[in-house]
Amino acid sequence: MDEKFELACFQIITYVGTARTHFINAIQCAKEGKYDEATELIKQGDEAFSLGHNVHVDLLAMDANGEISNGYMLLMHAEDQLMSAEGFRILADEFIALYKRIDEK
Question: In terms of pTM, does the model score above 0.70?
Fold first, then answer.
């Protein structure tokens, strides 16, 4: 497997794993009524996710240019992590809004 490709996959996994952790922690903060902290964690998660997404775009360009020969399992794992983090981002927003609404009552 090409070292550049492998490094890119691990970068995606690292960045979006960090993003997912921030999103999950944001939900926990919202549950405790710490909305400012939850908002900051969402922001940090978005930044980490963006880094992972940018690497993913680079991999897609490499694939389009015929630069990727093997390593599809690692790429699938990286993309799975990317999509999982995106899903947690959406859920985090929903949970934060829900907890805020509950606290307002």
Answer: yes
